[in-house]
């Protein structure tokens, strides 16, 4: 079967003879190992050059549709804009549809409007509901790929999910909690922003699975419905503290951490261990001040890079299919805050 590049082109790129290239391609003996690597590198260089030519002048309009607190949507927006220069010669432009709270019928209307208007992709953070899954199906029918971000809608026609393994994140939180509470007999407050986001549900499932296995007598109190907002989180956490005098640790799955810390101060209570998610400005401040013990963090710039590569691959601008890799989970403490 002929190679995808002419032997003469590979030889010119590698700076060796055509006969040498032919021997390397057909795995014949008599070629030094260093020369083999030289030919292999030349082929890799030609692949990159072809990709650059394929991308040259290509423009991609994508729509970010997110129901999330403003602090997180700002982090996503900053991560995408920081990645844009590295995507050249391809040009990405984004339209943002961002709401802290969003009635599902209004979110659906936005997705349907995008299906009518057209887009190269929709990046979606939304509740996992049948209505959302159906709207994703309509986008797919309109040849608009949907990439779910940080929380999935798995029973849909979405093209890919980009983000961390949320079950693994919850299990990691449980492991850390057990280690730090080993000699402390307190209950744990677990707070989520909503019961409708698959990512938060999976984090809680991972957390509970490990806690049930390794610390089965530890009592866990669930509180949901904060929308990840500080004011709502403060009110709900304070009520939980009033109702449960043994609460002495927090796993905050859905955010609103400044509000939760304030609730402990309002109740004149100590928090032995506080675990949160995402390294935004508020959580950085809480880490530095001691309000949070550790943050489970994943690199949003890497996520945005994966999104862009998935979009380009889907539209044939990158050779081969691109399947996003699961984001790495980093445990950030006051002693290893990136950029400090």
Give me the strand/helix succession.
Answer: HHHEHEHEHEEHEHEHEHEHEHE
Question: Which strand-content bin applies to the residues?
Answer: 15-25%
The overall number of domains is 3
For the termini, the CA-CA separation is 54 Å
Helical percentage: 40-55%
Backbone structural class? alpha/beta
Helical segment tally? Answer: 12
Q: Give me the Rg, rounded.
A: 25 Å
Main β-sheet, in a few words?
6 strands, mixed
Please state the second-level CATH architecture of the largest domain: 3-Layer(aba) Sandwich
Biggest sheet, strands in spatial order? 7-6-8-9-10-11
CATH topology name of the largest domain, in short, is Rossmann fold
CATH class of the largest domain: Alpha Beta
CATH homology superfamily name of the largest domain = Response regulator
Calculate the mean pLDDT score and round it. 92
Q: Which consecutive residue ranges, at least 5 long each, have pLDDT under 50?
A: none
Number of strands: 11
The outline comes out as: globular
Notable characteristics:
Rossmann fold; single chain; 340 residues; alpha/beta; 3 domains; 11 strands; 12 helices; five-stranded parallel sheet; 47% helix; six-stranded mixed sheet
Question: What do you see in this structure?
Answer:
The protein has 3 domains: 1-42; 59-163 and 300-324, Rossmann fold, CATH 3.40.50.2300; 166-297, 3-Layer(aba) Sandwich (Rossmann fold). The protein is built from 12 helices and 11 strands. Strands 7-6-8-9-10-11 form a 6-stranded mixed sheet, with helices on both faces. A 5-stranded parallel sheet has the order 2-1-3-4-5, sandwiched between helices. The protein is an alpha/beta fold and 340 residues long. α1 packs across α2 and α7 packs parallel to α8. The mean pLDDT is 92. The longest helix has 23 residues, at 33-55.
């Amino acid at each position: 079967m002929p190679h995808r590049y002419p032997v003469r082109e590979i030889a010119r790129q590698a700076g060796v003879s055509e006969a040498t290239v032919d021997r390397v391609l057909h795995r014949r003996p008599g070629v030094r190992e260093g020369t083999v690597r030289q030919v292999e590198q030349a082929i890799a260089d030609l692949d990159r050059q072809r990709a650059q030519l394929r991308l040259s002048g290509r423009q991609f309009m994508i729509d970010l549709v997110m129901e999330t607190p403003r602090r997180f949507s700002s982090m996503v927006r900053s991560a995408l804009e920081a990645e844009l220069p590295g995507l050249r010669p391809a040009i990405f432009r984004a339209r943002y549809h961002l709401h802290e709270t969003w009635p599902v019928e209004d979110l659906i209307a936005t997705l349907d409007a995008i299906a009518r208007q057209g887009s190269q992709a929709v990046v979606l953070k939304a509740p996992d509901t049948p209505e959302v899954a159906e709207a994703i199906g309509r986008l797919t029918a309109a040849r608009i790929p949907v990439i779910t971000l940080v929380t999935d809608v798995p029973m849909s026609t979405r093209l890919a999910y980009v983000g961390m393994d949320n079950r693994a994140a919850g299990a990691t939180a449980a492991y850390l909690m057990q280690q730090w509470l080993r000699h402390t007999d307190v209950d744990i407050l677990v707070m989520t922003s909503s019961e409708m986001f698959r990512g938060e549900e999976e984090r809680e499932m991972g957390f509970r699975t490990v806690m049930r296995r390794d610390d089965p007598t530890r009592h866990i109190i669930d509180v949901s419905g904060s929308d990840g907002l500080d004011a709502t989180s403060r009110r709900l956490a304070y009520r939980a503290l009033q109702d449960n005098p043994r609460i002495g640790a927090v796993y905050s799955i859905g955010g609103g951490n400044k509000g939760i810390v304030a609730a402990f101060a309002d109740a004149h209570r100590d928090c032995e261990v506080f675990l949160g998610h995402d390294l935004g400005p508020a959580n950085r401040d809480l880490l530095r001040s001691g309000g949070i013990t550790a943050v489970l963090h994943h690199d949003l710039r890497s996520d945005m890079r994966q999104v862009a590569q998935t979009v380009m691959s889907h539209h044939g601008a990158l050779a081969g299919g691109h399947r996003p890799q699961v984001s790495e989970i980093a445990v950030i403490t006051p002693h290893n805050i990136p950029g400090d």
